[in-house]
Amino acid sequence: MTEQLYDCIVIGAGPAGLSASLFLARYRRRVLTFHHNSPRNIYSHGVHGFLGHHGIMPTELLARGREEVTMHGGLVVEGCVTKVERIGEECFRVLTGDEKMVEQTFEARRLLLATGLRDLTPDCPGFREFYGVSVHHCPDCDGFEATGKRIAVVSRGKSAVGFTLGLLAWTDKLTLITNGDAGDMTDEHQAKLSEFNIPITNGRIAKLEGDAETKQIEIVRFEDGDALECDSLFFNLGTQPASDLHDMLGCRIDEECGLVWVDEEQQTSIAGVYAAGDLTPKSQLAVVAAAEGAMAAIHIHKSLIPESQRV
Length: 311
Ligand SMILES: Cc1cc2nc3c(=O)[nH]c(=O)nc-3n(C[C@H](O)[C@H](O)[C@H](O)COP(=O)(O)OP(=O)(O)OC[C@H]3O[C@@H](n4cnc5c(N)ncnc54)[C@H](O)[C@@H]3O)c2cc1C
Description:
By secondary structure, this protein is of the alpha/beta class. The protein is built from 8 helices and 17 strands. The chain starts with a strand and ends in a 7-residue tail after the last helix. It binds flavin-adenine dinucleotide.
């Protein structure tokens, strides 16, 4: 059991957490960053749209980030944070522990939650074989590569309509698959899709087929034996927070999107607790997460400046 006081403990070492840690280390703050090696985009074949790093493997981006943080004096440690609590006006306690690590406690004056989200993925055989190469969830990230291709869209309800229409930016060869659950999709929604010649298939998916070596999907096979040929599949089935640490601290949730509410300084409703990246509202992109991490670090640093140094 060890007790140490840090200026800030960052929980999460994806683009948001590492970017914050880098800035905090450059402000010469004592910063400790935890991660348990589970970034959201672990299945991606390359990070798209990150200026100057377009196409970089996610593992490479994070390895470089960890090295840059360490180079500036920050500490990045693999370990799962299991508990967080406020123990004083300016002090939080963080508990870690997993098979690799003996249970330890750490203390910090500020906390940054950058624990990200998990995607709800289609539960069908073949999905993992193609995920990240020809099966995607994020049109902003991978829509461009599907330009002009035949896209199968797996989604349900009202949100399926906007999601599918959004893909018209890249192709008009679209088919919506509800996988047997149309949800709250109305006749008007269906009419909207047919205006753009987008058929809807209500069959239940049996499996995805294609070339396992190149990870190229070719066919969506349905339980009734039907098949849909496609070059790419996009799904939109929702997300959930990767951890419940924000709940433990009592952070307010943004009612509209269900994510952790933050103010313009990336501070949550709990004083001294900041959040950045996918866990907070706004676009779920690596470059946005990194920018939010940097913003959080700037404001965390400012909040730690002693009164005597302020004018
Ligand atoms: C398949 C796929 C492809 C994508 N492609 C792109 C793309 O091309 N371009 C793009 O801009 N974006 C892309 N994204 C989105 C991008 O990956 C995310 O926006 C980005 O990773 C968010 O960064 P983050 O730091 O908020 O969270 P994450 O990257 O998810 O990192 C979360 C961190 O929190 C840690 N963590 C969670 N809980 C705990 C805990 N209890 N204790 C310790 N550590 C914890 C994890 O280990 C991890 O280090 C893609 C996403 C997916 C799923």
